[in-house]
Amino acid sequence: MVAPSVKTVELPLVEDTEEFGRKLGELVRAGDLLLLAGPLGAGKTAFVRGLARGMGVQGRVSSPTFVVARVHEPAEGRSVRLVHVDAYRLGGHLDELDDLDLDTDLVDAVVAVEWGEGVAERLNEDHLLIRLERGIDDVRTAQLVPQGEWTSRPLPV
């Protein structure tokens, strides 16, 4: 097995994080799984806001912490939904993740899972792990770890 090619991008402002998400949103397609990792305040939800804009989905994007998952329908002329999941409250309980039926959503939607590393990889071996970090200078970095077919797909870096 070949080790994935890790790419890193610097994101000095929150707007840069959103713009990075928007660029990736223009590249994703139904069936894609994005796993977002990083501490509180690292920019996971900001990234998903940009992702949603790039995908052209409807609705305000905010952290789905208390509802666990939000579905954003495509705008007119678009066909792919965004399912935005916050796995933080699941506490690593795989049964609860199964109850969300995300493998069904992966047929016709892009699924972005905040706090997904170590929890949601089993949904699809083809996924993109995005590790977000926030430095002491507030500059964020995104480390992209493509798995499976993502190793041969274009990334916005």
Automatic annotation (TrEMBL):
GO CC, alphabetical: cytoplasm
Organism placement in taxonomy: Bacteria, Bacillati, Actinomycetota, Actinomycetes, Pseudonocardiales
Chief place of localization: cytoplasm
Single GO MF descriptor: ATP binding
Single GO biological process annotation from the record: tRNA threonylcarbamoyladenosine modification
Subcellular location: Cytoplasm
Transmembrane segments: none
Keywords on record: ATP-binding, Cytoplasm, Magnesium, Metal-binding, Nucleotide-binding, tRNA processing
Sequence similarity: Belongs to the TsaE family.
SUPFAM superfamilies (UniProt xref): P-loop containing nucleoside triphosphate hydrolases
Role: Required for the formation of a threonylcarbamoyl group on adenosine at position 37 (t(6)A37) in tRNAs that read codons beginning with adenine. Is involved in the transfer of the threonylcarbamoyl moiety of threonylcarbamoyl-AMP (TC-AMP) to the N6 group of A37, together with TsaD and TsaB. TsaE seems to play an indirect role in the t(6)A biosynthesis pathway, possibly in regulating the core enzymatic function of TsaD.
Name recorded for this polypeptide: tRNA threonylcarbamoyladenosine biosynthesis protein TsaE
PANTHER family listed in its UniProt record: TRNA THREONYLCARBAMOYLADENOSINE BIOSYNTHESIS PROTEIN TSAE (PTHR33540)
Top-level lineage group: Bacteria
